């Protein structure tokens, strides 16, 4: 189903973790979770804010972002439709360590902290899901550190795009990633111009197609294995 056409309830029922909940648990989740609209460039949440909810992307794309004291911009990762984030800070009862900014108009699902904690207490399968979520997230960030330190820009751009197709973290992601070449540069630690060169190389290799307003991924496994 097209994410744009999904209602909040339809989106919740389509998640991986919803499959492990009882009917009564799902009923409370649907009653408590609410939707927000965030326009392109708007903040889904800000660094330093208290953690009040677990957040999912119904439709759109966001980036986890931070700025140094000197104003240098760092983008950690992008979260497409189907992804949920913030569980780590909720479990630690910590404030947000980063900004989350919409890269395009985005519909967001917010599950209140109380509901999230209630699921942890009443659903062992949900707890198992979160263990897998945290493990996948750890693997993703270890991979990002390795990629940043050991690989060249062309390979970093390929791995950056491939990382957005994790079936556990981002189930059902569309093959067209609506993200600018500038943001690809942020995610891969390169300038916009250098990211553009890398994308042109990947296009020549038959791995992606550069479309207006986005990148069409033709071969996810090829991007994971690509190296120059």
From TrEMBL:
Residues 151-221 form the HTH crp-type domain. This is Crp/Fnr family transcriptional regulator. Residues 17-137 form the Cyclic nucleotide-binding domain. PANTHER family: CRP FAMILY TRANSCRIPTIONAL REGULATORY PROTEIN, DNA-BINDING TRANSCRIPTIONAL DUAL REGULATOR CRP. SMART domains: cNMP, HTH_CRP. Keywords: DNA-binding, Transcription, Transcription regulation. InterPro entries: cNMP-bd_dom (IPR000595), cNMP-bd_dom_sf (IPR018490), Env_Response_Regulators (IPR050397), HTH_CRP (IPR012318), RmlC-like_jellyroll (IPR014710), WH-like_DNA-bd_sf (IPR036388), WH_DNA-bd_sf (IPR036390). Pfam families: cNMP_binding, HTH_Crp_2.
């Amino acid at each position: 189903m097209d994410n744009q056409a999904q209602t909040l309830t339809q989106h919740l029922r389509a998640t991986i973790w919803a499959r492990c909940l009882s009917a009564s648990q799902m009923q409370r989740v649907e009653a408590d979770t609410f939707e927000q609209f965030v326009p392109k460039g708007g903040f889904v949440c800000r660094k330093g804010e208290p953690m009040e909810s677990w957040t999912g992307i119904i439709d759109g794309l966001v980036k986890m972002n931070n700025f140094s004291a000197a104003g240098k911009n760092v983008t950690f990762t992008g979260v497409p439709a189907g992804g949920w984030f913030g569980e780590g800070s909720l479990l630690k009862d910590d404030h947000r360590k980063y900004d989350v900014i919409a890269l395009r108009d985005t519909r967001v699902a917010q599950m209140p902290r109380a509901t999230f904690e209630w699921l942890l207490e009443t659903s062992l399968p949900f707890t198992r899901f979160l263990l897998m979520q945290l493990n996948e997230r750890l693997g993703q960030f270890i991979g990002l550190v390795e990629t940043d330190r050991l690989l060249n820009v062309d390979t970093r751009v390929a791995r950056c795009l491939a990382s957005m197709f994790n079936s556990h973290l981002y189930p059902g992601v569309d093959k067209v990633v609506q993200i600018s070449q500038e943001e690809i540069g942020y995610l891969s630690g390169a300038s916009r111009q250098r990211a553009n060169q890398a994308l042109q190389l990947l296009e020549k290799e038959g791995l992606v197609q550069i479309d207006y307003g986005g990148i069409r991924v033709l071969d996810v496994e090829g991007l994971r294995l690509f190296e120059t």
